[in-house]
Amino acid sequence: MNDRTARAALTAVAEPGEALLNRIIDRAGPAGALEAIRAARPPEDVITTEHDVPRAVARLQQWRIRLQAVDPGQDLAVAGNLGLRLACPGDPEWPTTLDDLGDERPYALWLRGPEDLRYNCLRSVAIVGARAASPYGLRVAADLGAELAEQGWTVISGGALGIDAAAHRGALAADGPTVAVFANGVDVPYPAGNDGLFAEMARCALLVSESPPGTPPRRSRFLVRNRVIAALSRGTVVVEAAWRSGALSTATWARKLGRDVMAVPGPVGAHTSAGCHRLLREHPPALLVTRSEEVIEAVGRIGADLAPEPHNPVLPRDRLDPVTRTVLETMPARGPAGPAQLAAKAGLDLATVNGKLGLLAAAGFVERTTGGWRLTPAAKARQ
Fold first, then answer.
1. In the predicted model, what is the mean pLDDT of the chain?
2. Which domains does the chain have, with CATH numbers?
């Protein structure tokens, strides 16, 4: 059996990211790992202490039982018929960032969609968050997804309801790249409510899974797949998350892998943002982000992807020349003042003040009264 077929079998035999199995693969190769499973005997030097031998043998025996029902050739044939493919370590499409996971890296990845996984992960950001998201969170996730995609960044998420789906849809709306990492087979639409989204992603984006075609979702695999989301991306943005949330698991993995962790703040009393606020208070704290430019500044090239400073709004008085603005600032908040009084306060001659009062009147800042000059109601409202 060649290594590719052996890796296809291993994705069906063991749970994703088993450290023991990855150590056996490192020692004996994928085909050798299958032989070790059939013999229920680990290779030498894989088990470091005698205490771990019984546990390792029990795990190998469990995998051997599963192996009897596995047909990797059929899985690969089904994948070919569905337009799926298997990416293995060493393939041109394999993202080398997955090696950062060490003994918990995937054995292989099943892919669906036309995009190249490795290329798309070169400039990528994970956007994750609550399934039961608020309208605020959905809008922020969709906006971030679209804006990042417009600027050439791939949006990676988990395909779940709520924040994940909003981020994917935002990227698709901008005709940008996006990747969904599943906890089930890439041909199994879960959750069913996102079936249309997954169909569109299969047509123009990319679906990724560690499990063979036809694998149903399992609760334990949702948290395990979060390590892949974190490893594929250069940073993770948590848009909304409860105090205990799967999205925080992705952030934990990102921090562990040395990736940037970012969080979007929300209303102080919103339980959907409690997890984000928790990340912002931790040590080290997550980076607070509110717009795509700040995300790109965090994960982009040093000195080349700086976020532009937000522009302050330009007020009508900002367009006045300095002398005219000085005359305006000497006007009393209540009641009128005569030109001579204003000239004394401003430190200007009377002729200059009279000229500037005419300009201010034409611009709607002041008006003449029987007692002198005063601010207009509109000017008072703008103060």
1. 91
2. 3-81 (no CATH), 108-299 (3.40.50.450), 316-381 (1.10.10.10)
